Amino acid sequence: MKLSKTKITLPVLFAIGIFSIALVSYSPVDVSAEYQESTMPQISGTITVDSIDDYPADSTIALSVAMAVAENSVENGKAMWGKLDVVQGFLVYKIGILANDDVYHKSIIDAGNGQALYVSDGVSKDNWKHSDDKSHKKWKDHHSDLTPEQREIKKQQWGEVRDAFFALSLDERAKMIMHFMTMKVQFESLTAEEKDAKKQEMKSMMEELLPLSVEEKTQKLREFVNSL
């Protein structure tokens, strides 16, 4: 299946995805933001393309394989998202990696042979874009009815959803990511009423998921993946 070239941002996934709601508190606001390609070293891939749609469907490695390569490129790294894209004229996977102490890395994996072409330096949580004033205001507004203690509990619960997501296998995480990327495209074509209904559905699912233990959260996410 070909993937259209869509910019996947956590704020959008916040409205339509389970794991992304949890990761919002632990990731840059736009995890698929531009890779600052002008400052990247020159890469050399195996599949030359002009656009994301200009390639044979059977010419790429699986997303789960690219995620595995990316994880092995960063010590104690966990792949949290991934997408097929074009960089410097080559078809690649962009993979976001979270390492120990919430240090975030971006990696570029050759979509043809799975070689790691680029791994960025780590960015600590304190320097994530989501730590700016606008994001903090959004967090406070979203939980304005909670006490500071309740907000801390909510952050902890979301962190546990992140841990549950990382407890899934690479194949399971890749399947979930692919599902929500497809949902993102479909979401844009919904009416306002349908979008509101989808947001409410996801909100209800999260309200059910958050109070569970990490093990129970993992099982719920696994059941969700198996239902896709």
Search tags:
228 residues; alpha+beta; Nuclear Transport Factor 2, Chain: A; 2 domains; 46% helix; 14% strand; disordered N terminus
- Could you give the order of strands across the largest sheet? 1-2-3-4
Query: Domains counted in the coordinates: how many?
Result: 2
**How far from one another are the termini?**
15 Å
**What general outline do the C-alpha atoms trace?**
globular
* Share in helix: 40-55%
Task: Briefly note the structural class of the backbone.
Answer: alpha+beta
Element pattern in H and E: HHHEEEEHHHHH
The profile of the biggest β sheet is: 4 strands, antiparallel
Low-confidence stretches: 1-18, 20-35
Report the count of strand segments.
4
- Strand share of the residues? 5-15%
Kindly summarize this structure in a few lines.
The chain has 228 residues and is α+β, with helices and mostly antiparallel strands. The protein is 46% helix and 14% strand. Strand 1 (78-87) and strand 2 form a beta hairpin.
Give an account of the 3D structure.
- There is one protein chain.
- The protein has helices spanning 10-16, 18-23, 63-72, 133-142, 148-167, 170-188, 192-209, 214-227; strands at residues 78-87, 90-99, 103-110, 116-119.
- The chain is an alpha+beta fold and 228 residues long.
- It folds into 2 domains: 32-125, Nuclear Transport Factor 2, Chain: A; 131-227, no CATH class.
- It has a 4-stranded antiparallel β-sheet with strand order 1-2-3-4.
- A hairpin with a 5-residue loop joins strand 3 (103-110) and strand 4.
- Helix 3 crosses helix 6 and helix 5 (148-167) packs across helix 8.
- Mean pLDDT is 77; it is low at 1-18 and 20-35.
